[in-house]
Amino acid sequence: MTGRRDGPLMRNTTQSLRGSRIVIAIAIGVLLGCVFAFLFPRGLFASNSPIQSHPIAKSNIQVVSSPCESSEHVNMLKSEFISVSEKNAELKKEIRELTEKLQLAEQRKDDAQKPVLVLGEPHKAGVFGTVKGSRTSPSVIADETVNPRLAKILEKVAVKRELIVTLANLNVKEMVEVWFTNIKRVGIPNYLVIALDEEIANFCQTNNVPVYKRDPEEGIDSIARSGGNHAVSALKFRILREFLQLGYSVLLSDVDIVYLQNPFGYLYRDSDVESMTDGHDNTTAYGYDDVFDEPSMGWARYAHTMRMWVYNSGFFYIRPTIPSIELLDRVAGRLSREPNSWDQAVFNEELFFPSHPGYDGLHASRRTMDFYLFMNSKVLFKTVRKDPNLSKLKPVIIHVNYHPDKLPRMEAIVEYYVNGKQDALKSFPDGSN
Ligand SMILES: *[C@@H]1O[C@H](CO)[C@@H](O)[C@H](O)[C@H]1NC(C)=O
Ligand SMILES: *[C@@H]1O[C@H](CO)[C@@H](O)[C@H](O)[C@H]1NC(C)=O
Questions:
Q1: In the chain, what are the domain boundaries?
Q2: What is the topology classification, in CATH, of domain 144-282+312-371?
Q3: Which residue has the higher pLDDT, 107 or 97?
């Protein structure tokens, strides 16, 4: 900054003083003497204000002329001094403005350090009723180096770069069998079991089920193993990330799901996450205004709240986009940091809580699946099986998520919907006892 101030001043002086060097030296000496002796007893730079320095510079000249002999050189120097002083004032103003800008930049430093992605080009808004915000993010560029072995498997298994994926170990062998038997019956070719142990990998291979056995040496798996249960539920989201990075859309599926139609014929594919709901009717599934009543508030006793039953983290379609991958990272990160958290609660909190002071919310687009087509077991056992119209409809999948007796209910669903046994669902209670 000093350089900036001094530079023009020196340039200016040399430009105009082309006369004899002795004269210059004398003139400068005289001038400085006059200035210091008569006008700046308290120091030349006592005042920083450009507004003050200007008139002082002018008054300089009149005083300077009296003790010093007038000559053309001195006059030249006087006018030169005025112009230099003016330049100085301008420079000081410039410096003050720059300082202000610097301070502003300091204030914004925190924000500037956070990368902000602005999507797309600016557009003019269209006429009333025709504008639509973007909800469909672009797919990431596929990166095969993330997991070349999985990339090879997916090349063979996926159809149009999408597939059903489940995680399984030996504990859920019977359910996995019902799971893949119905997938095969419906004729879905693009599905894959991620085997968490050797036995389930062998079981899948024996049954001609596409299987991907994790390499126990792979970093995140060993972390999961040493980290206990919660790290294992984080593992699901960590593994899913690799599928997305490889450029595939994944329909993540628990094993307690019966496939009755091919779900890929019923997806919208317009959102980062498209998920089945735990809701059981239009309001609980798709959202409603839940009015909270506080009579003591009198006139303002009603407070309106936004409510919705959570998304089911055991069945969702996730596209390979940056918001999707951010979601997986955030969920996996929290599951490994918060030992008592439940993955479905975390999944929903990350998806739905907006940004607020101290928190940057995720900006992922979401779509709730039709709760009759992608049906949970509460809808089936509380409503559908008792309704003569609804019970005639064929869902796409049924998830036995609301009941602990999963295997017998899965088998009953197959009896009812596949084998046409009308009373197959009758013996079960609505809920669990
Ligand atoms: C639920 O919503 C669907 C369409 O969104 C509509 O056709 C149906 O009538 C609604 N049902 C009830 C009970 O409101
Ligand atoms: C079933 O559908 C018929 C015809 O649309 C209707 O008249 C009847 O009320 C419905 N029954 C129930 C229980 O919703």
A1: 144-282+312-371
A2: Spore Coat Polysaccharide Biosynthesis Protein SpsA; Chain A (3.90.550)
A3: 97
Ligand 2: residue of 383, 384, 389 to mutate (most ligand atoms within 8 A of CB) is 389
Retrieve residue 1's tokens.
């900054």
From the CA of 388, which ligand is nearest? 2
pLDDT at 48: 44
Task: Kindly report the protein residue whose alpha carbon is nearest to atom 9 of ligand 2.
Answer: 389
Which residue minimizes the CA distance to atom 8 of ligand 2? Answer: 389
CA-389 nearest atom, ligand 2 = 1
Task: Give residue-wise pLDDT tens across range 235-255.
Answer: 899 999 999 999 999 999 999
- Asked which of 68-77, 103-112, 281-290, 309-318 is least confident by mean pLDDT, the reply is 103-112
What Rg value do the Cα atoms of the chain yield, rounded? 38
Interval between CA 388 and ligand 2 midpoint (Å) = 8
Ligand nearest to the CA of 372: 1
CB 305, CB 290: distance < 8 Å? yes
SS3 for 253-288, per residue?
ECCCEEECCCHHHCCCCCCCEEEEECCCCHHHHHCE
Q: Which helix (H) or strand (E) holds 174?
A: helix 173-186
- Among residues 159, 235, 229, 228, the alpha carbon closest in space to that of 195 is found at 235
**pLDDT grade for 424, boundaries at 50, 70 and 90:** very high
Question: 389: Cβ below 6 Å to ligand 2?
Answer: yes
pLDDT tens readout for residues 172-220: 999 999 999 999 999 999 999 999 999 999 999 999 999 999 876 565 5
How many angstroms is it from 401 CA to the middle of ligand 2? 28
**Is-above-0.85 flag for pTM?**
no
